[in-house]
Amino acid sequence: MKEASARFTLEVLDPSGSVEIAEDYAPRLPSLSGKTICELSNHMWQDQRIFPALRSLLQERFPDLKVIPYTELPNIYGLDSGALSRLLKEKGCDGAIVGNAA
């Protein structure tokens, strides 16, 4: 039986590669007292359960905290960062609660 000889190049990529960080996150707020916090949701996973619970706990701890509920803001799925930034400024948000997972 004759063996076939074939030459080829196999390129192997490392899936654990690094991601370049283009922008730093904003610094943490020193306190939530007197601040306005926006709840941001993509309306895909249990936002109707977690946001009211978080809101209640935060307002117990910081009575002068203003929270703009996710129901008063648009779905952020697919919203570009410029539009989101303008929206947060327009609403007077000092910070935001983003993301929600099981």
How is this structure best described in words?
By secondary structure, the chain is of the alpha/beta class. The chain has a domain at 36-98. The mean pLDDT is 85. The chain has a 3-stranded parallel beta sheet, with helices on one face. The radius of gyration is 23 Å and the shape is elongated. The longest helix has 15 residues, at 47-61. The protein has helices spanning 47-61, 81-91; strands at residues 36-40, 66-68, 95-98. Helix 1 (47-61) links the parallel strand 1 (36-40) and strand 2 (66-68). Helix content is 25%, strand content 12%. It has 2 helices and 3 strands, in the order βαβαβ.
Shape from CA axes?
elongated
SSE order, as H and E? EHEHE
Q: Pairing-aware structural class of the strands and helices?
A: alpha/beta
Total strands: the figure is 3
**Cα separation of the termini:** 58 Å
Record the strand order, biggest sheet: 2-1-3
Strand composition percent: 5-15%
Largest sheet: 3 strands, parallel
Q: Low-confidence parts lasting 5 or more residues at pLDDT below 50?
A: none
| Range of helix content | 25-40%
Helix/strand layout:
Elements: E1 36-40, H1 47-61, E2 66-68, H2 81-91, E3 95-98
Parallel strand pairs: 1-2, 1-3
Overview features:
102 residues; alpha/beta; 3 strands
Q: Could you write a compact summary of the structure shown?
A:
The protein is α/β, with parallel strands linked by helices. It has helices at 47-61, 81-91; strands at residues 36-40, 66-68, 95-98.
